[in-house]
UniProtKB/TrEMBL annotation:
UniProt name for this protein: DUF3048 domain-containing protein
Signal peptide span: 1-22
Region (Disordered): 24-51
Acetylation is among the record's keywords: no
Domain DUF3048: 50-191, 218-328
Keywords: Signal
Compositional bias per record (Basic and acidic residues), positions renumbered to this chain: 30-48
């Protein structure tokens, strides 16, 4: 009798063990399926062409490039934090202007809008943008009137597509809404459903392999006056750069959000004066020395103009960007740049 009970006990243990083994395998299988499902969920189907940020919707928007005023009386600017790519370049005197390129985001209001210059138009052309400005130099006017680029200008649309803010004085008070940009494009017959080709972006593995000297602050000296200089400070928690002018942080007047930058590219290009007014010609084709700042590290690289875009190169090979926002500061030489 005791032997019979023992045999039943052994059989019961075998059954329980088999069930437990089955349940463990089932749990492991369910866990693997869930992990695969979760992984599939967070993997984006598409990426924005100028930021590399993942999106579930296929990007179809044409890029828009807007000339934005950077005079102290024009700050804080509207829409600046939403730009995918921003060029900062000297205009007349010691004052820079921004060419802000929007594709992944469409801010409600953009401005103050300023006048066109030849080199800004060429930079905008590199992204197949609709170019927005208010006014132009003689050289820029010839390019725009000859159809070099699709464009809307406040000279023709002041008070209609463009409006004047009562809170500021001219020439620091011209603004345009994104809805009016689309309205103007429709009136002119411009297609707005062709996105630009993608910039080269690094993978997570490649980002971890970024090399360079650790840096906390980068200063760019455009002028003897600090009001017209640019400063960038690395936020180690955000792993992004914050921008400052005249000691004040650059924020967006639309929402009080700070400008946050993932790639800072500082390129040296030859400048020369072309008239008594102080207008410049800038060599944007020859390439040259540059600094690239990513993830709190700075390294010296080169720049090349690839189909109208100023891009980083190292030892003849293209350098990939960190997904996110990119600012490109064009300076006369790298001696104007200090960092610590």
């Amino acid at each position: 009798m005791l032997k019979k009970h023992f045999m039943w006990f052994v059989a019961l243990l075998f059954i329980l063990s088999a069930c437990n083994h089955h349940n463990t395998n089932q749990d492991q299988n369910d866990g693997a399926k869930k992990e695969a499902k979760d992984s599939k969920t967070v993997t984006p189907k598409y990426r924005e062409p100028l930021t590399g940020i993942g999106t579930d919707s296929k990007p179809i928007n044409r890029a828009v490039a807007v000339m934005i005023n950077n005079h102290p009386l024009a700050r804080p600017q509207s829409g600046i934090a939403s730009a995918d790519v921003v060029y900062e370049v000297l205009a007349e005197g010691d004052i820079t202007r921004f060419l802000a390129i929007f594709q992944s985001e469409q801010p409600k209001t953009i401005g103050p809008v300023r006048s066109a210059r030849e080199y800004f138009i060429k930079l905008a052309k590199g992204y197949h943008t609709l170019y927005i400005a208010h006014g132009y130099s003689p050289e820029a006017k010839k390019m725009l009137m000859n159809g070099y680029i699709d464009q809307l200008n406040g000279i023709q649309y002041d008070g209609t597509l463009f409006y004047r803010s009562k809170a500021r004085k001219a020439p620091h008070n011209s603004y345009i809404t994104y809805n009016n940009i689309l309205k103007g494009a429709k009136e002119k017959g411009y297609s707005m459903v062709t996105p630009p080709s993608s910039l080269p972006f690094a993978s997570e593995k490649e980002i971890k392999q970024i090399t360079g000297q650790p840096v906390e602050k980068i200063s760019i000296h455009y002028s003897k006056s600090n009001d017209f200089n640019a400063e960038y400070r690395f936020d180690s928690k955000l792993q992004k750069l914050k921008r400052y002018s005249g000691g004040k942080q650059t924020i967006d007047a639309n929402n009080d959000q700070p400008v946050l930058i993932d790639n800072l590219f500082i390129v040296a290009a030859k400048h020369r004066l072309i008239d008594d007014y102080g207008r410049r010609a800038i060599d944007l084709t020859s390439g040259g020395e540059a600094y690239l700042i990513q993830k709190g590290k700075i390294r010296k690289v080169e720049w090349e103009n690839i189909n109208g875009r100023i891009l980083p190169y190292e030892n003849g090979e293209p350098v990939k960007l960190v997904p996110g926002k990119t600012w490109i500061n064009i300076v006369e030489n790298l001696n104007t740049v200090t960092f610590e």
